[in-house]
């Protein structure tokens, strides 16, 4: 038998096994077989845990992860155009335009005419955007520390290197 996981029956609060009104246990153990040894499955489960925590963490700054990443790239590369930022982040241009419109509407970034291409706009953080990004960076550090404490600094660094290696392999 492979690894097992506990699942909720979807009825809300779980009674102790054997105490359900229907006579069925409130929770069940499901044999996952070899699934936990599959790289994609293991990475996805870890990603969900980390992503859920990051979403909750950034909510304190009224930001979503993609918005945070966008602000960070613009801060590090002031004057990049929308296409360059979306490509660097691996985001679809159509979705990115909506995000840029929202960030601009919130007064976090501004579009300025590009000096090199009159058809595009250069993206820059506003003072408000820099302040929010500074707060978000503090929140990100708290988020990161929670997971580094689980792994330890050496394992964390090793995991980052290994994930980078996998990301660059592109089969």
Automatic annotation (TrEMBL):
Residues 1-28 are annotated as: Disordered. It comes from the Bacteria. Pfam families: MarR_2. One of its GO terms (biological process) is response to stress. InterPro entries: HTH_MarR-typ (IPR000835), MarR/SlyA-like (IPR039422), WH-like_DNA-bd_sf (IPR036388), WH_DNA-bd_sf (IPR036390). SUPFAM superfamilies: Winged helix' DNA-binding domain (SSF46785). Residues 36-168 form the HTH marR-type domain. GO terms for molecular function: DNA-binding transcription factor activity. This is Salmolysin. It comes from Hartmannibacter diazotrophicus. The lineage of its organism: Bacteria, Pseudomonadati, Pseudomonadota, Alphaproteobacteria, Hyphomicrobiales.
């Amino acid at each position: 038998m492979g690894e097992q996981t506990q699942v909720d029956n979807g009825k809300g609060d779980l009674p102790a096994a054997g105490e359900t009104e229907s006579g069925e246990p409130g929770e069940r153990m499901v044999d996952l077989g070899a699934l936990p040894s599959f790289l994609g499955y293991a990475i996805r489960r870890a990603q969900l845990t980390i992503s859920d925590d990051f979403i909750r963490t950034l909510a304190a700054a009224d930001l979503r992860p993609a918005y945070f990443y966008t602000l960070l790239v613009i801060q590090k590369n002031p004057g990049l155009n929308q296409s360059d930022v979306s490509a660097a982040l691996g985001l679809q241009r159509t979705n990115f335009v909506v995000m840029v419109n929202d960030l601009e509407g919130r007064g976090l970034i501004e579009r300025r005419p590009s000096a090199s291409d009159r058809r595009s706009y250069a993206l820059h953080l506003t003072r408000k955007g820099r302040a929010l990004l500074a707060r978000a960076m503090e929140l990100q550090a708290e988020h990161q520390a929670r997971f580094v404490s689980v792994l330890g600094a050496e394992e964390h660094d090793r995991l980052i290197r290994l994930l980078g290696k996998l990301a660059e392999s592109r089969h």
